[in-house]
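hey so u asked for the seq, here:
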Amino acid sequence: MMLRVDFRVRHFITSRHATIGAALIVIALMACNFEPSSVPTVGPYSYLKAVVLAGLLGLLVYFAMTVGNDRLQRLHHFIAYGVLCNILLIELSFRLFPSLVPPKLLALLPSGEHRRIADDLGLMTEASFQGNGLLYSFRPNAAQLSAYPWVAIDQDGFRNPSVPKDWVDVVLFGDSVTFARHARKDLGDLLRDQGISAYNLGMGGYSPFHYRDAYRRYVIDRGLPHGQILIFASFGGTDFADATKYAHVDRGGGDWRDYLGEATAIGPEWPDHQPFWTMAIAARLPAYLRTQLSDIVRGLDQLAGDKADVVLRYTTISVTPQILDLPLLDEFSEGWRDFSLAIDDVVKLAEGANAKVAIILMPNSGLLYRDSISGMDDFKRSLDVRYRTIVGLMEARYRPRGVTILSMAAPLARAVVDRPIVAGPLDFHFNAEGWTVIRDELVTKLGLNARRRADTRPHDLIDASGS
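ran it, structure tokens below
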């Protein structure tokens, strides 16, 4: 009997401790969220923060009212054990297999750890990139490319077997789509297979201003003779948004580190000085959720929105309009203004170098899968209008200057029906099969071939300023 009483007393105390501990955690969460919102709507708080604080307060009141209820405290006890076991499991899993940490949560870890894991995962950090001003490229032995052994990096940090010293038929500019880390052969490799010399200056995260900067530094300033440049512009809107991002960072006096926004710790600094990753994540999670609010709202909209199927011969993918749409642009849009300013500079440089220019419009997921989507007729009509608007802006501004505008939307949309040509479902980064389709289209439509312009010498290449 004494043993039973002793066990019940100790069990009651442990259960009470679980309840009190949970209440203390709620108080800590309330303290982390007590700062007034920058855009108050309910008193000093935003609507979302007011709801969160009200929910936490209700939970605190519940714990206070159940301190004397033995049955509920036993429930709290079991829940506490379950939460503790899950926390230990997550902690152990993350420590043994750091690649399991979602990239978006890296900024919640202690600062030294998130930088180390970001390097191992191949994310954009200073340890893997080199740069000057706003222009950057990979370090020649970048750790993040270890998972892609087929990617050869030249001395300047771009995807080429080596830096060309003589005539180049085609110079390629673009972002991560053009860098094509998931493709065992990129466009440069595929062109070289046909005897066409190519120099790939594409890089993940690049904006059109980076195309200009890279063109000037690695081609014009070096006096590298070349016949044609291909600018791979993203229909998905990243080129327009990135151009504006570059312009903002440039006006603020920032450099490539500011542009890339290398992950820094979110929320309180104290988790940097304790050993548990899960504690750091928990402490910084409220601040992180605030920064991700727009993504959360967009995700909820997607879950609640209309759905349809993309029907391909080899798979079927469920989609919503939000993940397929194009940006709405006009000639007064900030994104178009910044994009066109950068491309104007590129065209001027090419004109001084006596090189042809082609803007290759690369499809987003919506254009890639449009004809394979069942239903969503209103969305398709909206997509078509936005597509024609972007093409019209390009043609009106650049065709009079002798620039070729070529869309890859139709040939790639036909190809994706029959076989996988992208890195993953709904992706618009192409594998080697996709780049083969693009190469064949370019060779046919642009008449690409291997030739040497004997009359082009380094001193013929001048700066866009005309000097």
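The longest helix spans residues 2-32. The beta strands are 129-132, 135-138, 168-173, 198-200, 226-234, 308-311, 316-319, 356-362, 404-407.
lmk if thats what u needed
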